[in-house]
Design brief:
144 residues; alpha/beta; 5-stranded parallel beta sheet; 34% helix
Length: 144
């Protein structure tokens, strides 16, 4: 199995914590991964499995550290047809833009040819005090 690319978009660090935790969990079960907490498309293989962990910021926007990555995909008309992606979206359901960044990301990746592998997990921080645990419980069955 090739390395899973864990790509995070975070404003306050929550998505990074989830990504770092999942890298450790996957390593413990023998799955190799590379983490990209400041993602740059030039440093991420445009093939294989991508696990994207992204929080929603402001009025349904991508976090600042993630915007350059999104611009690279869009402006370079990236061919992602060899990518299989899974998204973990983190948000707060008390906002009407709950997990909007994750949903927008799914659409963008599909527009650039990527295929969804395991669906979209929406983690509501009002229900999940420790988002890392929710993400771990969701992702582990895919690799067991």
């Amino acid at each position: 199995m090739s390395n899973i690319q864990i790509i995070t978009g975070s404003t306050l660090g929550g998505a990074e914590y989830v990504g770092d935790h999942l890298e450790e969990v996957l390593s413990n079960i023998g799955v190799d991964s590379d983490i990209h907490n400041s993602p740059n498309l030039d440093n991420i293989p445009s093939q294989g499995d991508w696990l994207l962990v992204v929080s929603t910021h402001g009025a349904g926007e991508y976090p600042d550290n993630f915007k350059p990555f999104i611009e690279q995909i869009t402006n370079n008309n990236a061919d992602l047809s060899a990518v299989k992606f899974t998204i973990i979206a983190i948000g707060d359901s008390s906002y009407d833009t709950f997990c909007a960044a994750g949903n927008q990301l799914k659409t963008l990746l599909e527009q650039h040819g990527a295929g969804e592998k395991y669906g979209l997990l929406q983690v509501d921080v009002t229900d999940e005090l420790i988002p890392e645990e929710a993400a771990e419980q969701w992702i582990l069955p895919f690799f067991s």
